[in-house]
Amino acid sequence: TTEQQSSAGRRQHNLIVGQLDQVLRMKADSPVAGRILISEEVPRAKLRLCLELTDARGQLVHHHLDLEPTNGRYSRGGLRPGLAQLVLMGSADMELARSEHFRTDAAGELTPPSWKALDMRDRIFVHRLQVKASVGTHPERVTVKLKDSGLKVTEVNPVTLVTAHEHLSVAVEAVGFRPVEQVLVPGESEMELAVGVPVTFTLPAGV
Hints:
Elements (H helix, E strand, L loop, with lengths): L1 E5 L2 E5 L18 E6 L10 E8 L4 E6 L7 E4 L5 E8 L5 E4 L3 E2 L13 E3 L5 E9 L7 E6 L5 E5 L2 E5 L4 E6 L6 E5 L2 E7 L14
């Protein structure tokens, strides 16, 4: 008896001692591969493609897959046997698309048919937000909270958001400024923050 070791796990094969011309067939690992069609205005650096895999022990493992910047192709092999889904995420890890479940140890093609060439060109929206101060210096960093999901992102001003929503309800905060709420539409937007009023608390002696 011998074992075949691969990145997908061990496979056991029975060999007969003393018998010549025995053939050991090694099964090649089929990759999960496909392409995601994305509009040119969507910054690829804001997208994250992840493969969520639940293996035979019930352990959930996340694998990052690189998207080729020119054509949106992706490929990942050497996966453990288990049940998996592909997940495309945008700003603040907002879910943009999720595949159906598929098994990584299935024979033949692994990639779900709809993800071989997934068209996201009309399903991803880009919002660019410039935050200004009503007086004085504009904030260097701002925190944008997505009100519908509760997710938030902190970035250098101006902020670029990639989401699944055409109209995006946000709350914007910056140190030293009063928070403001606004609904963003795709493209360029501006927001003005008023300088916050400093508050000083004096505690009684001994507190």
